[in-house]
Amino acid sequence: MSDSQGNIAWDQRLARILVKPLARTSIHPNAITTLGLMMGLLAGHLFGQGDPVLANWGAGVFMFAAFIDHADGELARLVNKTSTFGHYYDHVAVGVSYVALFLGMGLGQRHGPLGDWAVLLGVAAGLAVAVIMGVRVGIEVREGVNAVKQGSFAGFEPEDTLYIVGPVTWLGYGVPFLVAAGIGAPLFLLWVVRERLRNSSEQDRS
């Protein structure tokens, strides 16, 4: 992502402001990453209970975990504690949180109108997201961070779409969201693999 202010996502700008007081403490950026990971797992657990009230809490916890994904990196840059381990630990923590979210949603809705299909949709979405992130990490390791850099539009990045988990849960649209994720994530994975194969083929011919 560009360092120009106009290309920085809104949640990242907010994270820069909020972590400044932490720069005067001994809190390590990886501790914030761990907190985000724990919040992501907690969100999945809350969704998995099948209780609408707990699911509402889980949605809020997940949004907090998604925001922390930016806070750790901002603190690391602020206190000059960036590291290769921290960078990839952040990737792993985010990936595990996303997988926990979809698995939890699937388990939590298995007694609803989708029945056992809810679990299958949750597993499909979770596995697809895990593979997609694994592919992106692999590309980054081989070709550098610029090869997987995502653009932003009006201060929003593609990954920011997952903030919608909160509103759709609170408004009672968890079932259609799970269906969309269970179908859409595997389809997106197929597109990612197709694009990767096409790019590799073009590089071999060049």
Which SSEs are present, and which pair or pack?
Layout: H1 10-18, H2 29-48, H3 52-78, H4 84-108, H5 116-143, H6 165-170, H7 174-205
Write a concise synopsis of the structure shown.
The chain is 71% helix and 0% strand. With 206 residues, it is mostly helical. The longest helix is centred in the last third of the chain and has 32 residues, at 174-205.
What would you note in describing this structure?
α2 runs parallel beside α4 (84-108), α3 packs antiparallel against α4 (84-108) and α4 runs antiparallel to α5 (116-143). Helix content is 71%, strand content 0%. Mean pLDDT is 85; it is low at 1-6. The protein is mostly helical and 206 residues long. The chain has one domain: Four Helix Bundle (Hemerythrin (Met), subunit A). The protein is built from seven helices and no strands.
Largest sheet: none
- Into how many domains do the coordinates divide? 1
CATH topology: Four Helix Bundle (Hemerythrin (Met), subunit A)
Counting DSSP E segments of at least 2 residues, the number of strands comes to 0
Name the CATH architecture: Up-down Bundle
